[in-house]
Amino acid sequence: MSTPTHVYRKLRGGGFSWKGHGRLWRAEDHLLEVTSIYVSESYRRFFFQDVRAFIVQRTNLRAIWAAIFGGVGTVCALIASATWWAGISNSSEDWHVALYIPTALFGLAALVFLVLCVINLSLGQTCRCHVLTSTGWHALSAPTRVGKANHTQAEIISIVQAAQGPAPTAGPPPL
Amino acid sequence: MVPWTCPVCRAALGPYGLDAVQEAHCPSCRASLRGQVFAAWWTPEKIESKLDRALEGEAVCFFHPSNRAALACDACGRFICTICDLPVGARHLCPVCLSKGLGKEKLPEIIPRRFLWARTGLAFGILPIICLVWPMWVISGGTAVILAIISWWRPVSLVRGRQRWAAILAIVLGILQIAGWFGFILLISYSKNNSGK
């Protein structure tokens, strides 16, 4: 049996989900979604001839993650400040040095969460991409940021239109 | 034709102007959507309502001798009818070739997942060293070496290729772990002997 090998080109933008790290790859005739959990990869293919619609849905995950990271980071920073203040206030006591250990631990945790919060905010708005095929809608695991999704969308639109030709009418499909 | 529904709540959408740049909102769940509908959406589904019975002298399907052959299998070349035609991407396969491809993962178009042996070996090579669980090093190191050797012949990632570097690094780290484990054992026995004297 002849086995054609595909040359895949990585598309911009990845994304994390409970299924693992997702990324889109483009072959000559199809789009490949790769979901990886480091030791294994799962594949889903969307052939350009079969793609009926590609939709980007803006989500609020950026705000939710910012609130989680920011909230946990702030709590950790407050605990670190409190233990540090307690250590300073009781400097005459023998045990005051022990308070600097939670100060360091919570301070480090606060720094990590606040850095994650800043990274999350700097990556831009979150989104979810969907592909419609003859079997229905399929949510993609990547890209999950609007900036990267714009590039992916533009690329997919041009490839699919090249494969299928222009849509018969400019407007939306009838019900 | 596939019903035109919201991808989030699956509610039927009214004929609003879907645009690749301008966002529209689903009237049911208020999801912000933008995108493109392609020509395939308007293309009617291919419905094979009746079979073409083969006439005298016509090529027939290998699996259904009474049916007219519609095309040839792209893998084995057998003539097949519309029932036996199984499109896989741009190729058309017969059921036998498709099942062969499914069984031994010969068809890259239908492989659903791949276990990455080299990367697993690398994980066994790196993680025990980072976690400093040296009593386990002889087991994890051996596992890393074995997995890396197996990866040399096993199927690889469809997109990342064979990743020989991961296998080589796993072998190196595995050997280091085994050597480190024996080193610790020698060190402990040496220090015990010295303390006894």
Automatic annotation (TrEMBL), chain A:
The chain crosses the membrane at residues 63-85, 97-119. Keywords: Membrane, Transmembrane, Transmembrane helix. The keyword Transmembrane helix applies. This is Uncharacterized protein. It comes from Chthoniobacter flavus Ellin428.
UniProtKB/TrEMBL annotation, chain B:
The chain crosses the membrane at residues 122-153, 165-188. One of its GO terms (molecular function) is zinc ion binding. Keywords: Membrane, Transmembrane, Transmembrane helix. InterPro entries: Znf_B-box (IPR000315). The keyword Transmembrane helix applies. Residues 56-92 form the B box-type domain. The keyword Signal does not apply. This is B box-type domain-containing protein.
